[in-house]
Amino acid sequence: MIRAGLVALALAAPALADPATDAAAIRARLEGWAAAFNARDAAAVCDLFAEDLVSVVAGAPEAGKAVVCERLARVLAREDVRLLYVVDIHEVLVWGDNAVVRLDWTLTTEAAGETETSVERGMDVFRREQDGAWRIMRFIAFDAPPES
Asked: Is 112 left (phi over 0), alpha (psi -120 to 50) or beta?
């Protein structure tokens, strides 16, 4: 009887988190985001963000998920512009169901025969949600200073 109770308790208890596995899952989410962006898949792009997202981007007011997703969908719908995002993840710090990622995004834009590349530095705060997926609940992004 006691043995059956312990087995039931073990099966009901959540698995212990493994920070290295979680960090790899977060890296995969970010790389998947870049792939979705480059494929112009607005729904997949938006799936990375939590419902209570707060974003802070230089030159723009704070925005939630609806505004961020609408902006991204509008950019991705433009057929006159070719876009390519590449992520460079510097570190992923995980504790429990939360994580912080420090990263750079390089965006190459081709329009009207011109090519422009910019680098945006950022910090993302992730949370593991009820469905087990890691989503960004807060992010801050700013132009990276030129290399000296």
From this structure: left
**pLDDT digit string, tens, across residues 20-62:** 999 999 999 999 999 999 999 999 999 999 999 999 998 889 9
Which of the 8 DSSP states describes residue 145? P
Phi-psi region for residue 90, left (φ > 0), alpha (ψ -120 to 50) or beta?
alpha
Backbone angles phi, psi at 106, to 5 degrees: -105, 120
How far apart, in whole angstroms, are the C-alpha atoms of residue 31 and residue 29?
6
Q: Three-state SS for 33?
A: helix
Radius of gyration for the alpha carbons in the chain, expressed in angstroms and rounded = 19
Alpha helices, DSSP H, located in 13-120: 19-38, 42-46, 65-77
Q: Which pTM does this prediction carry?
A: 0.85
Q: What angle do CA 66, 69, 73 make, to 5 degrees?
A: 135
pLDDT at 6: 45
